Amino acid sequence: MQAKYQELKTRLIEVNDINSALGLLHWDQSTYMPPGGAAARARQSATLSRIAHEKFTDPAIGKLLDALTPYEQSLDYDSDEASLIRVTRRKYERAIKIPSEFMAEVSTHISELYQVWTEARPANDFERVRPYLEKTLEYSRKSANFFPGYDHIADPLIEPRDYGMKAADVSHVFGELRKELVPIASVITSQPPVDDSCLHKHFPEEKQLKFGMDVAKKFGYDLSRGRQDKTHHPFMTKFSLGDVRITTRSKEDSLGEALFCTMHETGHALYEQGICMGYEGTPLARGTSAGVHESQSRLWENIVGRSKGFWKCFYPQLQNIFPEQLNSVELDTFHRAINKVERSLIRTEADEVTYNLHVMLRFDFELALLEGEMEIKDLPDAWRERFQEDFGIVPPDHKDGVLQDVHWYSGLIGGSFQGYTLGNILGAQFYATALKAHPEITEEIEKGEFNTLHNWLKNNIYQHGSKFTAPEIIERATGQSLTIEPYINYLRTKYGELYSLN
Ligand code: ZN
């Protein structure tokens, strides 16, 4: 049995190596590649993803999994070996349903679309991406239909990102959250806007980036296994457990941009860097779901990084870096500015209160597009209408409307957004549990110390990688299933201090 297990592992590591090379090509495309490289890069990516898919769906892997079933059953559910076999089988059974040629076709299409989008967005030109997007929707439906028997056509598309959640579950949770959020958002946005002019002076990029990295290191980001580069749409990527990279973007007239991007991506990176080293190269060596991943980026960015306690320690340091800009600005003023709630256009720049409304819009649109209730050509108008309804404002252009997010221009339509809001909910649920176990975390954050929190997260979430599903991790870490209560409590408490909520 040991020999068969080793053979399985060797084959999986080979697949992983190809996927890591693919990841490196994507990272390069999003950071340093000149535009002239686009066509060849699309082909190269397609070639590698085809090879990886073929290797992973090799019937030999199916045979090994079958042969290893008795071994798996003889082991504890929690053991690394049983978990590797179990998780691999789940992914294998999904992967063999998608033909390699289809994967390659989609990959070529998406690389082209991504390149078109990087030009169409600044040009505010939805028509340029429309035909590509129509093709993407076709591919998305086709992809779902490789998994007949679903309850909702979005289910098979949600599954690889948030295994254990179906469209109906997500819609239910979002409905509950919406009931709580809409009144809070509307009572806050009807109050006089917070003055955040202190964030919009001139802040030289280099100093911003350095401060961001100092914070990332304090959070626990290990730079001997990581680095940061600039990109259009920030992301975290991993080539191995020893090379977990983040990206950011900056604006010299906006202090929050680079800093909170860095904190966000650092949260993702801490998760990946915290995975048990023994899982290296296997399907266990990655975060378990989009929602749990996002819970970590949002926890570090918002719950920690936008808290008063954090800035009690870090604001004086920031003032030292930007004395002219910030010396006359009180901590309270700064703290209110970085937590300003407003009706805004851009999801990634939205505050914690309105953010989820942006996500719900996209999630609902994905369902409608997949169901055939909405067509791609209807997107810009539908976007404007829904925006008016939810935010009371209308995007003046496509650039900051339907063209703003990279997701539909770099992947399939369906399953790409729910993880953000699930992450907000889960971040608060995990944090509340950590705090119950270690009430000293609050004081430590005020001293710029994050070890207790980081260790709790590592022990309860990070180290397990993909060993457990998201529902299992939530249950094990918090003792209950996903609940919106801690998140609502968090928002009410925090924003009740910053605004009048009655
Ligand atoms: Zn994220």
Q: Explain this structure to me?
A:
- There is one protein chain.
- With 502 residues, the chain is an all-alpha fold.
- The protein folds into two domains: 2-120; 167-498, Neurolysin, domain 3, CATH 1.10.1370.30.
- Helices cover 63% and strands 3% of the residues.
- The chain has 22 helices and three strands.
- The chain has helices spanning 2-31, 38-56, 59-67, 69-74, 80-95, 100-120, 126-145, 155-158, 167-189, 205-219, 255-273, 290-304, 308-321, 323-326, 331-338, 352-371, 379-391, 418-437, 441-446, 451-460, 470-478, 485-498; strands at residues 228-230, 236-240, 243-248.
- The chain has a three-stranded mixed sheet.
- It is globular, with a radius of gyration of 23 Å.
- The model has no long low-confidence stretch (mean pLDDT 96).
- It binds zinc ion.
SSE blueprint:
Blueprint: H1 2-31, H2 38-56, H3 59-67, H4 69-74, H5 80-95, H6 100-120, H7 126-145, H8 155-158, H9 167-189, H10 205-219, E1 228-230, E2 236-240, E3 243-248, H11 255-273, H12 290-304, H13 308-321, H14 323-326, H15 331-338, H16 352-371, H17 379-391, H18 418-437, H19 441-446, H20 451-460, H21 470-478, H22 485-498
Parallel strand pairs: 1-3
Antiparallel strand pairs: 2-3
Helix pairs in contact: 1-2, 1-3, 2-6, 6-7, 9-16, 10-11, 11-12, 12-18, 13-15, 16-17, 16-18, 18-22
Bound molecules: zinc ion (ZN).
